[in-house]
Specification:
The complex is a heterodimer of chains A (114) and B (111).
Chain A lengths: L3 E4 L2 E4 L5 E7 L5 E7 L5 E9 L2 E4 L6 E3 L9 E3 L8 E8 L9 E2 L3 E5 L1
Parallel strand pairs in A: 2-11
Antiparallel strand pairs in A: 1-3, 3-8, 4-5, 4-9, 5-6, 7-8, 9-10, 9-11
Chain B lengths: L3 E4 L2 E5 L4 E7 L6 E7 L6 E7 L4 E4 L2 E6 L4 E6 L8 E8 L5 E3 L3 E6 L1
Parallel strand pairs in B: 2-11
Antiparallel strand pairs in B: 1-3, 3-8, 4-5, 4-9, 6-7, 7-8, 9-10, 9-11
Classes of the chains: A mainly beta (114), B mainly beta (111).
Chain lengths: 114, 111
């Protein structure tokens, strides 16, 4: 199993550009989430999904969109990039309930917005 | 929502000594509390977790304690080694299926 994969690993954008960060998992996990990690602030939840076709907002959703058309994929879209979105982005997945609380993280995407 | 506070933000210990990191949470309905270790440039890795119906859990040199009444939980690392140096994060899972993270503790183990 590849686990949770993310692409790209690094990205530089100009203010106003849009892009999609890709996330995929091959563990058949129901739950998937996107976090951003900024220095001194830990990880903050952007959006999450409890299954295909279902998404919800997390702590810091503004400026980001998500969709979940399949169990495996959970892309994160930046609509119009801003310097405040410079961060490291982590995707994570976990199974549903019970022993499924353990989250598995992808390797991260380091995004710089100029 | 939930609010998780973590202390200290930095911690230096001599090799072989113990390290303790503490977290508090605000939502009494939160029911799962993991601890992650993150090395520089890497993804967070789960090192130990505890559920709300358990008071203590141990795995070799690592232990976690939970006080539901006081809404705090702690990570204990005994016999620290240089490879324990990393950033450690606590988190709480609320009933809304959302994880809230502490702001991290940078642990340095001095050989």
């Amino acid at each position: 199993n590849a686990g949770v994969t993310q692409t790209p690993k690094f990205q530089v954008l100009k203010t106003g550009q849009s892009m999609t960060l890709q996330c995929a998992q091959d563990m058949n996990h129901e739950y998937m989430s996107w976090y951003r990690q900024d220095p001194g602030m830990g990880l903050r939840l952007i959006h999450y999904s409890v299954g295909a076709g279902i998404t919800d907002q997390g702590e810091v959703p503004n400026g980001y969109n998500v969709s979940r058309s399949t169990t495996e994929d959970f892309p994160l879209r930046l609509l119009s990039a801003a310097p405040s979105q410079t961060s490291v982005y982590f995707c994570a997945s976990r199974a549903e309930g019970g022993r499924g609380n353990e989250q598995f993280f992808g390797p991260g995407t380091r995004l710089t917005v100029l | 929502g939930e609010n998780v506070e973590q202390h200290p933000s930095t911690l230096s210990v001599q090799e072989g000594d113990s390290a303790v990191i503490k977290c508090t949470y605000s939502d009494s309905a939160s029911n799962y509390f993991p601890w992650y270790k993150q090395e520089l440039g890497k993804r967070p890795q789960l090192i130990i977790d505890i559920r709300s119906n358990v008071g203590e859990k141990k795995d070799q040199r690592i232990a976690v304690t939970l006080n539901k009444t006081a809404k705090h939980f702690s990570l204990h690392i005994t016999e620290t080694q240089p490879e324990d140096s990393a950033v450690y994060f606590c988190a709480a899972l609320n009933t809304g299926n959302q994880f809230y993270f502490g702001t991290g503790t940078s642990l340095t183990v001095i050989p």
